[in-house]
């Protein structure tokens, strides 16, 4: 299969390159390709004539988006419009990677794929705008919402916790932010399975189960061989962007239609450290 991957140098992009190494790939990332450059992107994608474009490129710094909303909308909304138009031009299917942050986190139970989004930050609003472009411009699309991505490549919460633990005598992490840590290689493998079927629509794909930032940090330090590190729970971390307090994405569609599920988040984290 001919597959283009945007954001190919990112956490998910690199994991996708691994699981799709047997396919013909076009890798799209800065500095060679900029998804906000309409003409350049159309040329690159239409010349390649992919069957599928997996669009992971985004301005992913959630607080950065709050401080620079124009950049957030330019990359996450208009960049996605450009990718969708390129797919339209060569009749490719598009996979748009979206986020649990499109929800406000107040539901009190897991979010279904059909629940109404209510984004609370510039990042989340710009990603939801990307969902709208994908849905309105294309017939062949998969919108895949995921959460709390980490991998061995790139900067993420796991690495940040270990870095901070080296720099400080004790650490505090919040219990009032709950989500699903998701190992990028697991998501990449699920995406590989998903694009084998023309079952277009909206999907929720995360590792199974939820934890708070505090519980996640505790598991990270334990698995890194530092179970006695002084780690304390706290609440109400002040930051520029408002993020959902409790967001669990229920994987109903991929599990029911295709039997695609991801393993529990703790098992994936063990793999990250010892796999
Ligand atoms: N990370 C999470 O916790 C999380 C959670 C839910 C959903 N998601 C979504 O999942 C997707 C993948 O996330 P990730 O963690 O793999 O992201 P990532 O590691 O930040 O990778 C994103 C990649 O996109 C590139 N990029 C940014 N702007 C671009 C542009 N204008 N043109 C071309 N490439 C550009 C980045 O390059 P530079 O590094 O040079 O900017 C980077 O290589 C994103 O769409 C994100 O919104 C992420």
Bound molecules: NADP nicotinamide-adenine-dinucleotide phosphate
Strand content: 15-25%
What percent of the residues sit in helical stretches (DSSP H or I)?
40-55%
Q: Which structural category do the helix and sheet elements fall into? A: alpha/beta
Rg from C-alpha positions? 18 Å
Give the distance, in angstroms, between the N- and C-terminal Cα atoms. Answer: 29 Å
Strand order of the largest sheet: 2-1-3-4-5-10
Order of helices and strands: EHEHEHHEHEEHEEEHEEHEHH
User: What's the CATH superfamily of the domain at 2-154 and 182-206 and 250-255, by name?
Assistant: NAD(P)-binding Rossmann-like Domain
Helical run tally: 10
Overall morphology: globular
**Annotated CATH architecture of the domain at 2-154 and 182-206 and 250-255:** 3-Layer(aba) Sandwich
Low-confidence stretches: none
CATH class of the domain at 2-154 and 182-206 and 250-255: Alpha Beta
Question: Can you characterise this structure?
Answer:
There is one protein chain. This protein has 275 residues and is α/β, with parallel strands linked by helices. The strands form four sheets. Strands 2-1-3-4-5-10 form a six-stranded parallel β-sheet, sandwiched between helices. It has a domain at 2-154 and 182-206 and 250-255: NAD(P)-binding Rossmann-like Domain (Rossmann fold). α2 packs parallel to α4 (69-90), α4 runs parallel beside α5 and α6 crosses α8. Helices cover 41% and strands 17% of the residues. It has ten helices and twelve strands. NADP nicotinamide-adenine-dinucleotide phosphate binds next to α1, α4 and β4.
């Amino acid at each position: 299969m001919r597959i283009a991957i945007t954001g190919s140098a990112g956490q998910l992009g690199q994991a996708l390159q691994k699981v799709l190494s047997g396919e013909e790939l076009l890798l799209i990332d800065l500095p060679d390709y900029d998804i906000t450059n309409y003409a350049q992107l159309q040329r690159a994608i239409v010349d390649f004539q992919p069957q599928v474009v997996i669009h992971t490129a985004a301005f992913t710094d959630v607080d950065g988006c709050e401080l620079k909303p124009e950049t957030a909308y330019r990359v996450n909304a208009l960049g996605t419009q450009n990718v969708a138009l390129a797919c339209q031009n060569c009749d490719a299917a598009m996979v748009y990677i979206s986020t649990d942050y499109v929800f406000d986190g107040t539901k009190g139970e897991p979010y279904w794929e059909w629940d109404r989004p209510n984004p609370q930050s510039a990042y989340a609003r710009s990603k939801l705008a990307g969902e709208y472009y994908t849905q309105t411009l294309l017939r062949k699309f998969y919108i895949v919402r995921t959460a709390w991505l980490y991998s061995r490549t790139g900067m993420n919460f796991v690495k940040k916790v270990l870095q901070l633990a080296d720099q400080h005598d004790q650490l505090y992490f919040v219990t009032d932010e709950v989500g699903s840590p998701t190992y990028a290689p697991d998501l990449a493998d699920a995406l590989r399975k998903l694009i084998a079927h023309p079952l277009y629509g909206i999907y929720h794909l995360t590792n199974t189960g939820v934890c708070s930032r505090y519980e996640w940090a505790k598991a990270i330090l334990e698995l890194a061989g530092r179970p006695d590190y002084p780690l304390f729970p706290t609440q109400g971390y002040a930051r520029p962007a408002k993020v959902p307090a409790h967001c669990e994405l229920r994987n109903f569609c991929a599990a029911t239609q295709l039997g695609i599920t991801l393993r529990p988040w703790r098992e994936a984290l063990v793999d990250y450290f010892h796999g």
